[in-house]
UniProtKB/TrEMBL annotation:
It comes from Kaistella daneshvariae. Residues 1-20 form the signal peptide. The lineage of its organism: Bacteria, Pseudomonadati, Bacteroidota, Flavobacteriia, Flavobacteriales. InterPro entries: Thioredoxin-like_fold, Thioredoxin-like_sf, Thioredoxin_domain, Thioredoxin_ResA/DsbE_sf. CDD domains: TlpA_like_family. Keywords: Cytochrome c-type biogenesis, Disulfide bond, Redox-active center, Signal. Gene3D superfamilies: Glutaredoxin (3.40.30.10). Residues 27-169 form the Thioredoxin domain. It is found in: Cell envelope. PROSITE patterns: THIOREDOXIN_2. This is TlpA family protein disulfide reductase.
Length: 169
């Protein structure tokens, strides 16, 4: 009987706290999403459109993460492997840390301060994250050479669809 209760509790916990897969995969960003501002390491606020423009002509992977997120930290070595396997593509990290100090400490602690990093200083809920149905981290998106969404939803850099999409592009 105790085993049944434990199993039921486990199932309930998983269903309550698991990522909810978006029902539709979007292929481009809305004007409002692209206008969303995000903070760079130097403190400058940029629109998402400016970041995508900077990578135009190249495949871009966006890694949504936070330094408090255990799964995000566990994914970092696989992200590094994906980068090493595909040196022709660009990577950016979009952080959902709760404070600027927490974000900066996380970048140093997890040795990604030298990468291209941005922080959602307005918090989790904003026009960009709402548009892409971001409800959990980690999350990965593949953006094609024209700034359109090629892979809308992946929760791991090991998702075989990421490499498949890179190869197709």
């Amino acid at each position: 009987m105790n085993l049944k209760i434990a199993f039921a509790t486990l199932l309930l916990s998983v269903s309550l706290f698991a990522q909810k897969v978006p029902t539709t995969s979007k292929i481009e960003f809305s004007k409002e999403a692209l206008a969303q501002k995000i903070t760079a390491l130097d403190g400058k606020k940029l629109q998402i459109a400016e970041i995508l423009k900077k990578h135009e002509g190249r495949i871009l992977i966006i890694d949504f993460w936070a330094s408090w997120c255990r799964d995000c930290i566990l994914a970092l070595p696989s992200t590094k492997e994906l980068k090493e396997k595909n040196p022709e593509i660009d990577f950016v990290y979009f952080s959902l840390d709760r404070s600027h100090e927490q974000w900066k400490r996380g970048l140093e602690k997890y040795e990604i301060a030298g990468e291209e990093n941005y922080w959602f200083d307005e918090g989790w809920k904003n026009n960009f994250n709402n548009y892409i149905d971001l409800n959990w981290v980690p999350r990965f998106m593949v953006i094609d050479q024209t700034g359109k969404i090629a892979k809308y939803y992946a929760i791991s850099p090991n998702d075989p669809d990421i490499q498949k999409k890179i190869d197709e592009l």
